[in-house]
């Protein structure tokens, strides 16, 4: 006979599978553009600057549309909102393939808006349903984001060839991944009483071993103005934003750094794709490691040190050991993303506050992130080389560690102290 505990475990596995299927979609729709950007330019006849909008619009949208997530989550419930996210994402991907320039940019905006909602809501769902397994789930979440990004960048060109050289059909095919995730999420949409509206009295609100405002029944009615004045929330936001700034600066300019040193363009592009493999390892392990070590800032120190080591190698000897530099970069990127996303959950004492902190951290964070590629490119233009931009990025890494020390402390936003949940 199947008991309540067995049924609960099965339900948790189904929820986890649905969340990870959604996570696969949170970068694939964006990373699939880059490999065919030259085809798009040649077909539609617009400039390199206009083409760059196709990769920058989603990042800006990640920030802007994140602020709409809490209101929609309250209105629809978190699980229904994630279902809507997948529908909008599939629609946006398909619109990009309509043979009209306006539809290309409208679809790109919809893709960014949908992903922004998913970015904000999934940490809150993890807080609600997996409080005692938050380290494992946040690690898996960030890992599947990376896998989705890799699939988008690695499979779009083969898809184009299989569709007779059509970049439109190659991009449209990624709507299928969103449909797959929607099917995996259907059980959550059919759950009785399972709309998933954030609540100040949710069972997932104060997990085992947590103390602080939520555990005492308070701290759930905070507005964004209060969070904007809270040092822990500010630290989590800056940590997320600066981490994203280093990531998108690397994604944009590392191939150019290699090519300036004499590496062929095709190999330079592969070097960035290679970082996905080491990143997958650390994105899974870093949150679990962080829950078990002291001092709490040690994992961030290690991750930032790996990133700085990578760019130091690129500064002084880019072609001496390129795979070593990229392995270090991948380790750093995977760990930093997973830790930053985990801080959103660990520093929030309730499901409702997790959603609000996620909105603040990812809303302002991704807007800040857009300055990374722009700033590094501007410094390259002004200095005429890559030495000054790389030194500036090393300084940004140092600032990242400084602000992360507060984000890593065992403290909740809006006061109160607590300890991280250790998986049982």
Tell me what the structure shows:
With 424 residues, the chain is mainly alpha-helical. The chain folds into two domains: 11-189, MFS general substrate transporter like domains (Growth Hormone, Chain: A, Up-down Bundle); 216-407, Growth Hormone, Chain: A. The chain is built from 19 helices and no strands. It has helices spanning 4-23, 25-31, 37-44, 48-64, 69-76, 78-95, 101-129, 134-162, 167-172, 175-189, 224-228, 231-260, 265-274, 276-290, 298-316, 322-346, 351-369, 371-383, 387-407.
Quick overview of this protein structure:
By secondary structure, the chain is mainly α.
List the keywords.
Growth Hormone, Chain: A; disordered C terminus; 424 residues
Topology (elements, then pairings):
Blueprint: H1 4-23, H2 25-31, H3 37-44, H4 48-64, H5 69-76, H6 78-95, H7 101-129, H8 134-162, H9 167-172, H10 175-189, H11 224-228, H12 231-260, H13 265-274, H14 276-290, H15 298-316, H16 322-346, H17 351-369, H18 371-383, H19 387-407
Biggest sheet layout: none
CATH domain class of the largest domain? Mainly Alpha
Overall tally of structural domains: 2
Using the alpha-carbon principal axes, give the shape.
globular
**At CATH's second level, what is the architecture of the largest domain?**
Up-down Bundle
Oligomer type = single chain
Report the count of strand segments: 0
Radius of gyration: 21 Å
Helix segment tally: 19
Order of helices and strands: HHHHHHHHHHHHHHHHHHH
Low-confidence stretches: 199-220, 417-424
